Amino acid sequence: MKEKKLGISAYSLFFEELADVLNELGMEQWRTEQVWKWLYSLRAGTWDEMTNLPKTLREDLGNKIGSLEQTAGLISKVQEDGGTEKLLLRMHDGELVETVVIPSRKRRTVCVSSQVGCAFGCVFCASGMDGVIRNLESGEIVAQVMKASRSIGAFPDNIVFMGMGEPFANYDNVLRAARLLNDDNGLNIGARKITFSTCGVVPGIKKLMTEGVQFELSVSLHAAEQSLREKIMPVAGRWNLGELMEACREYTSKTNRIITFEYTLIEGFNDGVGHARMLVKLLEGLKCRVNLIPLNPVEEFEGRTPSMQVCESFLRIISRSGINATLRRSKGLQVDASCGQLRKRQKHHFEF
Ligand code: SAH
């Protein structure tokens, strides 16, 4: 049997690295450009689609780098109102990850997973309900974007690391994937169009501020008070709200960049006028914006989605304080779209 190159994918390579591989295979430099074009511009799904490469080269590439289709193979695709497309993808070892494409009038956003599962166990999030299985390789993250591009027949404008997993628990692979996506040889997605979303992993925030990169940072806050936050986000026991906000303030002053705070509204828990005022107070003087997300109900969590009226009055309080805030009203994300929900359902489907 042929040796399988696990955990490495053509999409984990920068142009120069692919050139080295081709060089080792005795190929001339111009072949790299040809293969690269197939990988990115032409969105090839298999080595065999690269019809102007000699058959032996296609085989050699498959043996050396691994087949293209073993990473991010499409298991299922669900299309929703508003055009949101949810892909369930299978990695080389059979693990499943979710990738979501969210179109809007002006742009297409691809939401990628950074891990299989998640270790952080936020109570309302389907991704963490079975713990973490493994980190995704950088190439497995880029492959999700390419698979999504293939599926919609276009390249994305924005990438958000808001699928399954905690990006800062897989820091190096996530940063490398973001750099690959940003690379002007490849997809050339602007750094400011690539967003990392963290549940509050303080060392990750601190590390990111030293990188000198322009990637965007989102922080999932969900409560403006330690005692409340702890109840739904175990991560708050590890890095408390005080430490988190201190790191955020340091981040904005060091990088001169804005942070987006994600706030999932849960009925009767964190959606009151008092909660909104507390949030305003917490964020006072911080360069930030707030993104309110009405809870996507999940089976395993008894919390409910507040009425639109409640969400809107929460929004008004935040906006009136001068903080730039938005409320996600999109239907597309209402059904099953929250990170991990699709995989979880599919897993049950497979298991039983
Ligand atoms: N681990 C990262 C990124 C993944 S989740 C993080 O926590 O930021 C992306 C966002 O979706 C987070 O803000 C997360 O809290 C939110 N989310 C997860 N499940 C949700 C649900 N059921 N309803 C609403 N938002 C949810």
Q: How would you portray this structure in words?
A:
There is one protein chain. With 352 residues, the protein is α/β, with parallel strands linked by helices. It has two domains: 10-68, DNA polymerase, domain 1; 72-349, Aldolase class I (TIM Barrel, Alpha-Beta Barrel). It has twelve helices and twelve strands. The chain has helices at residues 15-24, 29-39, 55-65, 138-152, 171-182, 202-208, 226-232, 235-238, 241-255, 273-283, 308-320, 341-351, and strands at 73-79, 85-90, 96-103, 108-111, 115-117, 132-135, 158-161, 194-198, 216-220, 259-265, 288-294, 324-327. The strands form two sheets. The protein has a ten-stranded mixed beta sheet with strand order 1-2-3-4-7-8-9-10-11-12, with helices on both faces. β7 (158-161), α5 and β8 (194-198) form a beta-alpha-beta unit. α1 (15-24) crosses α2 (29-39). The longest helix is centred in the middle third of the chain and has 15 residues, at 138-152. The protein is elongated and about 65 Å long. Bound molecules: S-adenosyl-L-homocysteine. Residues 122, 124-125, 162, 166, 197-199, 220, 262, 264, 293, 295-296, 298, 338-339 line the site of S-adenosyl-L-homocysteine (SAH).
